[in-house]
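G., the chain you wanted modeled:
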Amino acid sequence: MSDFLLHAPEGANKKPKRVGRGSSSGLGTTAGKGNKGQQSRSGKAVPYVGFEGGQMPLYRRIAHRGFSNYPFKKEYAIVNVSDLEAKFNAGETVDAAALKAKGLVKSSAKLVKILGDGDLAKSLTVSVDKVSASAKAKIEKAGGSVKEAEEKSTESK
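Predicted structure as tokens:
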């Protein structure tokens, strides 16, 4: 019969805090609210998020003017030359679809950039959005070719 006696684990059932019931209770006088100030009063709600006690709040002190380039920034998925050496065979074409198929770039990546970390001994045809100068030199030295999809706007000026 003792197998069916169920009880809560120790510490699961706590007695409620009875505040303001005399100094010997440990929660008398200030009832655990500290001394004085806005938080010790009844109905102590702070007016709103960002309220600084009446001081001019930060969101109103700082000027909200000007231009931000954040919505227009471009994020590139980065692939190194050493990754190309490991995953591609000689004569293959390296583009965004091939990089996604080989698992070097996430499927959500929109732009791809090749960086020159590592060595390349295979001849590859690289056709991506951007290629660093060192990566371009290594690819061409190995007998490959580079075609960037995105031409720099500063060259036309």
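The mean pLDDT is 88.

Shout if anything looks off.
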